[in-house]
């Protein structure tokens, strides 16, 4: 393939459905004079040999949909359930194929191959995602190819591939967005490059009001990326990033009575806050040893501080109304209003996370057994440390974390005023080894592979329940995770695939804490099966269908009060469908009318043993569907209208239908949300005008009951302008 067409050709190869927009993409490439770049992700170059289901969203596809965040971008991906309990993708909750989406802890989420979770092993909670403006492509992998990555391989993985450094002079873009709910977004990108390398800076800021009242947020993301071509066969790619969120988004939902009065209220929203600061660095060395061998060494370091303050611990504790639980003596705690909230305290939960790792990986071709083959062999060493602390106080001064730190356990200061509640350290050392080989035999691609995880965790408690204690325990586990996949390409532009692999989610020390005690939930192991078909055989038509089955040996579920237990065997099974029809391509017309849709039926998502045998898993909707109809005009105008549907869900393992006063149990009713997007870029122009709308009918719907009732986002519309240079 000639390098001049790598960008467009890569789009088409990675996603057959993108053939719909090939002419438009070529026009954009010409008008922007896009320089030759190499777009690399977690999927192999020969996608027809991938022995499992995957889904790709490239830059053109994302521009057509104009999502607010990754949350909306993933709504059209079959098998993916995104719970929108927060605004603009903050605190994202993603579940794949019936798995609980809470904080995306069972889905491996990466940026350029590096995990984004707070602690990939010790606390794989997701509190941030890559801004859409920096994303070149989103890769979603659910099949046996997961064994090359980890540690989470039970459900699926998502990788955000960011924009490459320019290689042909000065390039960049500026963008501004404005929307209701006081939303504003500013983005700037600038870079310079030549045959020796280059450098690029991204700056992105978004702010606005959240779903609930007094839930304003402000997010800043900055990334500096550079590339140095050492020789014709070696290059270095470096990236440093800084992310900061300051918001008043409360982690506590509403009690049933509060929600009935005003589902968008947040009684303590003015005082509750969430803060997250992430600093990251990544250095990649690529050495093309020969035309058939490449050695890639990736090193990374991440430092995260997150802290939250809230004034309500238990929603709906007073006949369906929440109570302020840490107030000065003489102030009625049950009278929950903003005036009292200003006079009361609460609890701070600052947490620090650091992790680093290094991973050399060798990709090479060979002809073992007389068959053309492509092999991958690699090793990763990973360490992480986290410190979890908590302070509490019962008057207004306790709203300041610095006050609590300075005064807790000091002479003359009552413990009720400043109480140091918790100090816990968690250390992880993990070694991962993997090998995968794809044999090509005629129209068949056979891919066996294996991953080995060796994990050591140590949890040490220094403070619990406000008292100094010492309790330290170690947990050492090792697992062999095999996989086998098969792909057949005997029909033009068509792949029949099947596979099985062992899934694994390591034991999470962060969920094994109970006061001064340390319990040990066992690691989750699953066996994942797939059988599917993807095809672009017919002109202007592409589709994919996948049958899947996942059996857990001992799934972990969350109980009330935030406790986790092993709940025995479960089974998830279903079918995923996705397709696109472009009538412009079918009839050789410059006017492209198209249909795009996906549907997931998780017909089985049940506990097979234990007290909940026969019940459905939490937050596992049986039906999910997304449908869009769109039109592209050759003058550079396009418009799309779509609908997303999610069926009823259960919020607890007992499948309780009648809600309690706290609002934490009961069903989550089905809902359908309508959305749209439009873009206009005159031919030959570098300016793009766009708009996007979500929940156009302003439907009120329930999104979550995890910590009380949380409403989904009401109508949100924004308009924007972008200039590329």
TrEMBL record:
Name of a matching Pfam family: Plug
Motif TonB C-terminal box: where in chain: 708-725
Q: Which domain of life is it from?
A: Bacteria
Ordered alphabetically, the record's keywords are: Cell outer membrane, Membrane, Receptor, Signal, TonB box, Transmembrane, Transmembrane beta strand, Transport
Annotated membrane topology is:
Multi-pass membrane protein
Q: What cellular component GO annotations does this protein have?
A: cell outer membrane
One of its GO biological process terms is: siderophore-iron import into cell
Query: Where in or outside the cell?
Result: Cell outer membrane
Instruction: Supply the InterPro entries for this chain.
Output: Beta-barrel_TonB, Beta-barrel_TonB_sf, Plug_dom, Plug_dom_sf, TonB-dep_rcpt-like, TonB_rcpt_CS
Where is each TonB-dependent receptor plug domain found?
Answer: 47-156
User: Start and end of every TonB-dependent receptor-like beta-barrel domain?
Assistant: 267-696
Q: In which family does this protein belong, per the annotation?
A: Belongs to the TonB-dependent receptor family.
- Protein name (Swiss-Prot/TrEMBL): TonB-dependent receptor
Give the organism, scientific name: Methylophilus medardicus
